[in-house]
């Protein structure tokens, strides 16, 4: 157990390093000179040289990488080319909003997925199962940015119940004035994890119910409700692990939904970075999101190893 | 000479020999959901391919006078878009690019990922470590983020979005290919083939490929759904094709401004993406259960 | 067609002569990556005579199956030499040629047939690899199906999942015979079958051996079956040979305490043969770190301090019968040394 934990932790180091390398290389993947986008059209050769040196583009690649990664370790992800502000503070401002959205969506998706999955697995091959499975398939097949538009059409344009875009004015508070902005994007975002959790839980419940111990419980005279409780208890750890990973996907994949709802999160930041060709900002945002994902994976693995004694990987 | 006296499986004798894929095909044809999905997908495909010969309106010609006409307008059964172009025509023409950028990456990734995964799985050892550890790095990125990062770095364009989605789908396919190949490789029939003196290449061709391609293919078909959504998503963000090309994701984007005028018209391109995506998902599920012959 | 393999050294030359065969599998050690090895096969010597059936027995994990795979070179040996009919393998006989002469039947009848190939294709694969034209190879396959008791017209175009376990194992035997080998290694080939089917397949094997003039290496954990088919028996313990000799002699007068314990642990219905000897206790020690000296001393009822320090070597205890035990080695330091020799 200890060996597994230690191994898993050690394994994270090369992964983090490689992730940083990929993020760094992204800039050099892009065609053309990254400097061109920030230079005024009539820039003098002197200005160009000065800026080139300032951003370090004149050094050899490994040196640039070394400087970049040591700075990153010290919390300095460079400055945005577009507005000159530190990338890290820009990203951290946005991450809060994205986390809020992704967590709300995760909780909602998990709750719905758990419910549909348990019901579908328990009443396997009945119309209830077919209905829940259909919802799940629709959930994983729907282009969520389109679903967002449809929800806006229904609840904002036609019914005028909820605001269409934005996150409300001022800093976030848990009041209706702000929460009303969260509802549509969170519901939209919850659809995919809902579908995935439903499918996972349905399969899990099927496996659990076909185990001998369930028959043993029934033979002992346990009521169906207690049997169901056992099923839930056994399905929960895996479902939570799946949800943990989904949270990571939501964090990284929020760009489309944030664009639809103009939600001021990391996705919105990415969008800006891409279209203003603000490469340090692009690099920094992707690095932060990918690291979130790596550490979330780590947390899920460790948590699972602690919960489930059967896992002795490595 | 000893004679087999074990009971024969009677059904197996009566049934005509069709081989594995024959049996899978027959089982698939018997599944109504799969057949409906296949029918709808075929209709979308064929109409996209033969769009120029369907007598549709010009998908590029619009008119400011006939902007955003509702459904059922004379000459425009599905109305017109924000520039007055015929929606039906644009939806059908849009399929050409949307299907291409949705399906081609999965196909590319299927070819490359299978080669990588089979090499890693069959050889094991350092080849396996080198390939699989590299793939682990890409697993450290959520797929949408990776697609957008590469696409964003490369810049907008159809080719770039195909490249970025191909990169996104290689790791999962290679992982599946590796695990399937490893499990097949450890089966005794591969050892029996080696024991017969066959070369590694012959064993791969006759004994490994036939057993791994099926499962990898089914897995790849299940990715088409995600790929369609992501490809259209890239276009929706403006990272795919450029106006005035008809493409579902891009159409969805440009029609967003129209949701206050004619909301349901604006949602139409999404219906197409949804239909193709769910069609492939269900078809892939059907194929998976049809291939599970031992059940 | 494949030509018959010629005999070279005459009937008295061993068909196989194995010396110092060794295979250590590396296992990833603890956190510090300490290199550890499983001594699966640790210096094994034996010969196989032309036309005999050599049984190999031992508890699971003793290295029986690894030995079989080493002989076929499905895994590369770390050390040791294999001489086939006077010809050293690797130098004068290529692996490909060796595999023409030696074939193997595996335990799992389902896993050893490619599920995507028809029975006929599976059997014809080997000959085709060796250059037999497709039509000829198929003809051969159908002929062999008949020889193993499966009607070619019924079975040739079937797939493995349409056959029963016994039928599949017949197919595997036919596949092994398709290259006209002289030696067939049967690695637990009948162990997974039902008792009644097992008996049929065993009789088929005996018939085929006579008809094709084969030599068998018969690996099994089932001592009754081994006694039924074997001429000689080799007993393995923790990767080493502890005793090898004629089957009847071994059963009536086992020399090595481990052989005796194995035989004693066999269930018997004969009250006169019930033994008072303590059955084999516990599991075999870990092959990663085998006991020093005689590897059996931790479980041996006759163990003495010397057994923990001196490693016995395989030596003749009787004509054609070798044992690796200090009790059978003169002046070994064991209190019973030499006495057992006289007793026998």
How would you describe this structure to a colleague?
The complex is a heterotrimer of chains A (314), B (295) and C (344). Chain A has 314 residues and is mostly helical. Chain A has helices at residues 2-29, 45-55, 61-73, 87-122, 127-141, 144-158, 176-209, 212-219, 224-252, 255-261, 266-275, 279-307. Chain A folds into two domains: 11-73, no CATH class; 90-312, MetI-like fold, CATH 1.10.3720. In chain A, 75% of the residues lie in helices and 0% in strands. By secondary structure, chain B is mainly alpha-helical. Chain B has two domains: 1-30, no CATH class; 39-290, MetI-like fold (Orthogonal Bundle), CATH 1.10.3720.10. Chain B has helices at residues 10-14, 19-29, 32-49, 87-123, 125-139, 143-154, 158-185, 188-195, 200-237, 248-255, 263-291. Chain C folds into two domains: 16-253, 3-Layer(aba) Sandwich (Rossmann fold); 271-344, no CATH class. An eight-stranded mixed sheet of chain C has the order 6-7-8-3-9-10-12-11, sandwiched between helices. In chain C, strands 2-1-4-5 form a four-stranded antiparallel sheet. In chain C, strand 1 and strand 2 (35-48) form a beta hairpin. In chain C, helix 3 (119-129) crosses helix 4, helix 3 packs parallel to helix 6 and helix 6 packs parallel to helix 7 (195-212). Chains in contact: A-B, B-C. The B-C interface holds B 1-9, 12-13, 17, 19-20, 187-189, 191-198, 202, 206-207, 210-211, 293-294 and C 69, 72, 74, 95-97, 99-100, 103-104, 106-108, 111-118, 122, 125-126, 129-130, 147-150, 154, 157-159, 161-164, 166-167, 170, 172, 175, 179, 197, 200-201, 203-204, 207.
CATH level-1 class of the largest domain in chain C:
Alpha Beta
Question: What Rg of chain B, in angstroms, do the CA atoms define?
Answer: 24 Å
Q: Work out the number of β strands of chain C.
A: 12
Task: Tell me the overall shape of chain B.
Answer: elongated
> How is the CATH topology of the largest domain in chain B named?
MetI-like fold
Order of helices and strands of chain C: EEEHEEHEHHHHEHEHEEHHEEH
CATH architectural name of the largest domain in chain B: Orthogonal Bundle
